[in-house]
């Protein structure tokens, strides 16, 4: 083989691997992407029952009901709309009423969101960015949430 | 006074970095050896001042000086000493300080031990290090300054994020940073070579030990991080395809490719342009990973701080370095001379194959990590790309890589003998087939593909063993002769075999735990038992226990065999930190061989029962054991005499060399 | 002092740059690629004799490496010697030296003037508790007495001198140890027993522990009128939830008290607290804290109060059921002059207590009293 042919083999091999990679990615994008929705999005965009989505918002105060076994029900709200959620399993350490939450799963026929994953957060002051954006959009973002993350002391910072 | 000393030392280091970035370049442009010789002492001094700054910050943490805002926000005088120390890098500002300390440390290493490098290359490389250091020191000073003060110091600090109060944190971030930042040396060498316009086979040998060190640290750092999330986050996963994990995986993939392409470049002077590109890309991915995640652009556990000013500054640095390096590359690379010839079936060919698949895999991870960002910027739609995406792209790309891996070391340079290699791998392939059959026969359940996965892992491990067996001829020569050959074998050959073997071990662990792991989630009352795999776990009750800055509710579990034989006790706990009003779950683990039983506690219910997660994780320890093998293999290669060659040696040896010519 | 160290550091940095520039020629001798290729040749020989590669392969590799070696040697020979005009590099080096002399002091100094806080001393928490600043005389006094006591551990009078000093500095454990020594060496008295009790309370962050209570009881056995012991026994009742017991003990104490006694107003405040009458603003911290606060400079006191306020605020945000705590926190912010914070806190309190209408009313009343509405 000449030098040129060898180069061609190399480039051809490279391109074909790349093509395989791209094909794999496109295929995976079709099947495994999950959209993020706020409760308002879910209602306004008429999300089909059975479509996997991520639902983000605040856990409505007083809505958490613990059932038999590890079944829980609660309501996710963005201030404008509420979506009831059911989940079976252990809730993350930082799951609280009035705090942000992201649940992954799908709506069932009756408009209840069946979550199979509740995303854990790792800090009481940390609110998922998507949730912040969604709350801001619906006008229910309070600076209070940001302040909670800020200093508790009135130390002047030079 | 200590914090102010640290602050000023950091500023002085910035001044020195500016000098380090300019004077040696002027020297190499004007061929003035004196100006070039400024580089090494300034790099050492820059490290000294950065180290002073870092130690000053550490002292503020140890002494709980809450007049330092950063200490106040992230520490607490009640914390044990070890966590007061590790909280130095448990926050954005402090982790940046660690980052530049390691950067300056590597610069100092090159300055002190790079005597085997040509003067011009060394001066240029140190200058590039100077630019990086200057950029990040300015970034710290202007947007992430850990030395800002509070005039009226509060009496108590706000405590470190409890999830970070763990011994794993003492080790995992520094290791990871050693890896990330270690690749800066390869980057600097690449830029230096492009500036000089001359790249040859010797360059690869000079850069290889640095790449190797970085790769070893990154391997261990990733493994450490994975183990940390496995036991600390409480749901027993070892890898989540979280953006920050991807950020560490991408440089690892690119760095692994670089490690292999540098071998080709050193041996055959081929793939020069590609190797330079990989060196630039690897560090660019390190930069992008560390900073995109840290700046809060990507949502993640590790997103410490969300501050638009920081984001913009970081973006500017990324554009400057990555864009600048790639432009320089585009301009200079075509001028480089062509390298040696080789057939597609050869050691080089196998290494090119490795590079192709590693970089493609790296590209899929990159796309999966950045696509949500791009989509949101373009259409405003928010999506998440989760494990299914990576499983169905990364996995298929890794399988051929695994299958070809054992062939590489068995093939000759230039023109390999595929048939011969295949014959020599016959035993390994047979063993792998036996393993597949045995798995099918003995193990129930799990995905159908899993036994084949086991087969691949066994093939990889046995392939590595075959390589050593072939080289030592242990099956053909008497043992004594083979042992002599084994000792005479270059250490890098041993290193390759160990690292490849480690990949197989890790793969076996991943397959074992994902295919045959079992899980029980239930609410149980004291006295009740759960059965998992071949163990019975009884919940005996809970009790309270006070820690230095937390309160534990501890669950007591007894593990027995089904026949009642006592195996051990597990004590997971629910840990509350009053200073931050936070609770974390502390899982309890019990190792049985390389498998583990894993328990974590959930919330207590009003009826007296407690939610419990119980897992059986078969072979899980092999995942990290494999990484240890890889690290050890890297260490063996690093100790190979060839990598030290070129260092100034006693005149006698040099004379002997000349005589041998 | 700080600036002298800065100057020294800067000088060291400048020296590092000027020192290599001052040399006539570079002493640094770099490596060369020739060495690498020579070693590669050697290695081929080694591999060949070890039988790792065949003769043909070895020969081909040898040819290839030799070619590289020759090329490298050529490049080296062709490389031009450094510029022959010595004046040119010399001027450049001088320029470099001058730029270092300018950059190194000016860049850090400029940054420091912009960002640094040279006037704030370091305040490590541990050192701060032990030695408040500005009290060098007390410090030296203490160390003198400590030295003396280390040599003469049986000097009861010495222990009695140092114990109250430890109390004032907040070194309650040391104070307790000193009072114990004094008790053993100088004999039991009601005052000594109750002082030891007070130190134990201080060490337990204001909680009257079992041991402390025993001390106070012993003091009262020795002298039923010992006021300190009577106060703390009452406090123990309050902490056990027996507010009535505390109130009656303190009323009795006040009835017996000489009018000019300095602690009268303090006991009155405590009494007001347990009887639910309006709480005086300074209540909250333990007596020991207050004693320590009395000895502080204004600035230190503010810092201490702020620290306590922050702690209280954290506690309340963690567990919002404590209406007394909320009332105290709102008042504290008003005292500190931070009315916005006070308003926010009141709002937080309302949210936290939303299910308790009675307590909400108390918050609302306080807000009205302090003029915080609107």
How would you explain this protein's 3D organization?
The complex is a heterotrimer of chains A (158), B (661) and C (374). Chain A has 158 residues and is α+β, with helices and mostly antiparallel strands. Chain A has a single domain (35-149), classed as Beta Barrel (OB fold (Dihydrolipoamide Acetyltransferase, E2P)). Helices cover 33% and strands 27% of the residues of chain A. Chain A has four helices and seven strands. Chain A has a five-stranded mixed barrel. With 661 residues, chain B is α+β, with helices and mostly antiparallel strands. Chain B is 64% helix and 11% strand. Chain B has helices spanning 2-30, 33-36, 39-62, 69-74, 81-86, 92-113, 119-143, 167-196, 201-232, 243-268, 272-294, 308-332, 347-379, 387-404, 407-410, 418-424, 426-442, 450-472, 479-488, 491-516, 620-638, 641-644, 651-660, and strands at residues 383-385, 518-524, 529-532, 535-546, 551-560, 566-570, 573-577, 582-586, 588-592, 595-604, 610-617. In chain B, the strands form two sheets. In chain B, strands 3, 4, 5, 6, 7 and 8 form a six-stranded antiparallel beta sheet that branches. Chain B has a four-stranded antiparallel beta sheet with strand order 2-11-10-9. In chain B, a hairpin with a 5-residue loop joins β10 (595-604) and β11 (610-617). In chain B, α8 packs across α11 (272-294) and α9 packs antiparallel against α21 (620-638). The longest helix of chain B has 33 residues, at 347-379. Chain B is globular, with a radius of gyration of 27 Å. In chain B, 60% of the residues are buried. Chain C is mainly α and 374 residues long. Among the domains of chain C are: 144-283, Tetratricopeptide repeat domain (Serine Threonine Protein Phosphatase 5, Tetratricopeptide repeat, Alpha Horseshoe); 296-369, Serine Threonine Protein Phosphatase 5, Tetratricopeptide repeat (Alpha Horseshoe). Chain C is built from 18 helices and no strands. Chain C has helices at residues 2-21, 33-49, 55-78, 87-115, 125-130, 136-151, 156-169, 172-186, 190-203, 210-222, 227-239, 243-256, 264-275, 287-294, 298-318, 323-335, 339-352, 357-369. Chain C starts with a helix and ends in a 5-residue tail after the last helix. Chains in contact: A-B, A-C, B-C. At the B-C interface, α1, α2, α3, α7 and α9 of B face α1, α2, α3, α4 and α5 of C. β1 of chain A pairs antiparallel with β1 (383-385) of chain B, so a sheet runs across the interface.
